[in-house]
Amino acid sequence: MTRIEDQATVLFIGDSITDCGRNYDNVGDLGRGYAMMVAAELNFRYPEKQIQFMNRGINGNRVTDLEQRWEQDCLAHNPTWVSIYIGINDTWRWYDSKAETSADEFYRTYRELLVRTKEHTNANIVIIEPFVLPVPEDRKGWRVDLDPKIHAIRELAREFGTYYVPLDGLFAQASTKAEPAYWAGDGVHPTDAGHALIARAWLDAVKV
């Protein structure tokens, strides 16, 4: 039996991986990535539930960007499910422009998002951890900055009892079956196959 209730509102929020080309002028557009794939699968399985899906991913966002728009883009919709996927840009901006988000700042800001969500909604929360693959080779160096953020997210998932999608390990595992670029051409943005991996992992985590 699915955990998704009748007439649920499932809100996906995050950065470009969630955004995935959505049309900002169409509030119901889900983009072309994992959010659309999850919605399609759930609507196929449970048409009688009339689940509503929303995508509020925005290209380039870091956790501080989510903090600034959390009221408008999350809480105001009173979702019954909130799926959060953020973190890779908090690492990427350090390597391309020296705009640092320390692991402590990342943890504190992310935690505040969870606190506000718990205080203002009864939503179930799904946390998706960021990943990076060694494409190109210099992405390997990003682990120094990204790994502490992944550990912070895992701590928060335990503290708040959220659903959790362990993407970093899943993409590493998938890369033993096909080269990393098959899953994410630049080590960050998933291919169609990569998005399908995320969607399947999301559905498995929520046990639907």
Keywords, separated by commas or semicolons:
5-stranded parallel β-sheet, 9 helices, hydrolase activity, globular, 5 strands, Ester_Hydrolysis_Enzymes, 48% helix, alpha/beta, 208 residues, SGNH/GDSL hydrolase family protein, SGNH_hydro, EC 3.1.-.-
Give a description of the structure.
Helix content is 48%, strand content 12%. The protein is α/β, with parallel strands linked by helices and 208 residues long. Helix 2 packs across helix 9 and helix 3 packs parallel to helix 5. It is globular, with a radius of gyration of 16 Å.
Task: Give a brief rundown of this model.
With 208 residues, the chain is an alpha/beta fold.
Write the layout of secondary structure elements.
Blueprint: E1 9-14, H1 16-19, H2 34-45, E2 52-57, H3 63-73, E3 81-85, H4 88-97, H5 103-120, E4 124-128, H6 143-160, E5 163-165, H7 167-174, H8 180-183, H9 192-206
Parallel strand pairs: 1-2, 1-3, 3-4, 4-5
Radius of gyration: 16 Å
Instruction: Report on the biggest sheet.
Output: 5 strands, parallel
* SSE run: EHHEHEHHEHEHHH
Helical content stands at: 40-55%
Q: Give the spatial strand order of the biggest sheet.
A: 2-1-3-4-5
Cα end-to-end separation: 7 Å
Tell me the strand percentage band. 5-15%
Low-pLDDT parts are: none
Judged by helices, strands and strand pairing, the structural class is: alpha/beta
Protein name: SGNH/GDSL hydrolase family protein
Keywords: Hydrolase
Domain SGNH hydrolase-type esterase: 12-197
EC number: 3.1.-.-
